[in-house]
Specification:
Blueprint: H1 4-10, H2 17-28, H3 30-34, H4 38-45, H5 49-58, H6 64-73, H7 76-89, H8 93-109, H9 118-128, E1 132-135, H10 139-151, E2 158-161, H11 167-176, E3 182-187, H12 193-204, E4 209-213, E5 226-229, H13 242-259, H14 262-272, H15 279-283
Parallel strand pairs: 1-2, 1-3, 3-4, 4-5
Helix pairs in contact: 2-5, 4-5, 9-13, 10-13
């Protein structure tokens, strides 16, 4: 099936002035058209609904639904959450709960599909890097924050690149990185264009890049030296970050097993003991009101 632009341009000379007005609007606003009903498009293009019907037939299509299907195809990943919400509104709470739990189970089970040694290799790369940058936005940033917390006791130089301080700050940090460093980029649907742009900047600086995403067609895959694919489907939300948290928990466990001795674990426990709750705290008498 032809692309919407190709279809309109191929029939342009056959369109009336009003129909060309619709075509111009569709070519200038392809994403909006993908979300519009026939009445919405007629209002936006300042024509009648009948003109829209004649326009799509002039393109050789049966009806507006076929025209909309072509428009939507280019943005399926972006529009899928809208469809998810529409379906969710028709479901009961029990049905949504069952679907969400089944999805969570499948995503965690998908971690077992990781190639042997992928997590070990990731730990090795992180431990051997001069600096580790963690690039991601939205739920990906939350996952990477968790990874940083689990590994900060073993890595001296980690930097979270999640937009904090502005994109200029991120560009300066990545621009100073080089071949001895490592950038871990995470992107889940719907993908952030900023993640792609900063990955390009890192590649231009010769920084080795590892991508964590949900499929081989993800826009970050061509920009990464290595890629770890995780399941991220969700029946309602844009995507699920659950497998990401599971992966990073595994990475944290490997760092702990490799790089923390029992004596170091004991010393750390003694250090933080004053800040931990114990059963003794529950038996203490609350302080008297000094008033």
């Amino acid at each position: 099936m032809a692309d919407l632009r190709d279809l309109i341009e191929a029939h342009w000379a056959e369109l009336t002035p009003n129909q060309q007005r619709v075509g111009e609007y569709a070519l200038s606003n392809p994403f909006l058209v993908a979300t519009m009903g026939i009445e919405d498009l007629a209002e936006a293009a300042a024509v009648s609904a009948a003109t829209i019907t004649r326009f799509v037939r002039q393109l050789g299509l049966k009806n507006y639904a076929e025209f909309r299907a072509i428009a939507v195809r280019r943005y399926q990943d972006l529009l899928r959450p809208i469809d998810n919400v529409s379906r969710a509104q028709q479901a009961s709470s029990a049905e949504l709960t069952e679907a969400a739990l089944a999805s969570a189970h499948d995503n965690l089970d998908g971690l077992s599909q990781l190639l042997p040694g992928q997590c070990d290799a990731l730990v090795d790369r992180m431990a051997g890097a001069r600096q580790v940058g963690l690039l991601g936005f939205g739920s990906s940033a939350l996952c990477l924050t968790y990874l940083r917390g689990l590994t900060e006791g073993f890595l001296r130089n980690q930097v979270l690149l999640d937009g904090s301080g502005g994109h200029e700050r991120m560009a300066r940090i990545i621009g100073r990185m080089g071949p001895g460093d490592l950038l871990i980029a995470m992107a889940l649907p719907r993908y952030s264009i900023a993640t792609v742009e900063f990955l390009r900047l890192a590649r231009a600086s010769g920084v080795p890049c590892i991508g964590i995403t949900d499929r081989a067609q993800s826009p970050i895959c061509p920009l990464c030296d290595e890629t770890i694919l995780l399941p991220a489907a969700h029946p309602v939300l844009n995507s699920s970050a659950l497998a990401g948290f599971g992966l990073f928990e595994l990475v944290g466990a490997l760092f702990t097993a490799r790089y923390q001795s029992p004596s170091e674990a004991t010393a750390m426990t003694r250090l933080i003991f004053p800040y931990l709750y114990t059963d003794e705290d529950s038996s203490q008498t609350p302080p008297e009101d000094s008033r």
